[in-house]
Amino acid sequence: MSELIEELAELIVRSNKIVVFTGAGISTESGIPDFRGPDGIWSKYDPEDFTYQKFLHDQEARKKHWQMLAENKLITGMAEPHAAHYAIAELQRLGKLDCVITQNVDGLHQKAGNSPDRVLQLHGNLSQVKCLDCGQRYPMIEVQKWLDRGIEVPECPECQGLLKSDAIFFGEAMPTEETMEAERRSRSCDLCIVVGSTLVVYPAAFMPMYALQSGAKLAIINQGPTELDGAAHVRIDGRAGEVLSQVIARVKERLSAA
Ligand code: ZN
Question: pTM here?
Answer without folding.
Answer: 0.92
